[in-house]
Amino acid sequence: MAGTLSGGMVVALHGDLGTGKTTLARGALRALGWTGTVKSPTYTLVEYYPFSSLYLYHFDFYRFADPSEWETAGLADCFRSDSVCLVEWPERVAGLLPVADLDVVLSYPATADGRDLLLRSSTAAGDRCRAAIEALFLPAPG
Known about the structure:
Helix content is 21%, strand content 24%. The chain is an alpha/beta fold.
């Protein structure tokens, strides 16, 4: 996924507590070359990672009790054409976010170890990202 992220993208990370949303964000940051600490933004709401080619923001809206908190938090300015926004718990801001290019849904499978992964893309940028992820997990045709 990391290699396909580009400015202006929003990636929504859905799933219950402990399904791996922050781990996925951490993996994307490592793949982009970030060597520093990658913390969960559960208490800070957002962690910022500057790269030479883009700004990456990692949000966690788990603590939002009401979507109106989005307005008072002043975070809308982070969603720009030169930034990538990874958003945990986007449903907590009830449609106030820009439309996600890619929705990543992580869940626990009913009968096996690991996680289930569902990907939905809504833009060409999201399609590229989804295809890159699927290429890692789906067998090559032929």
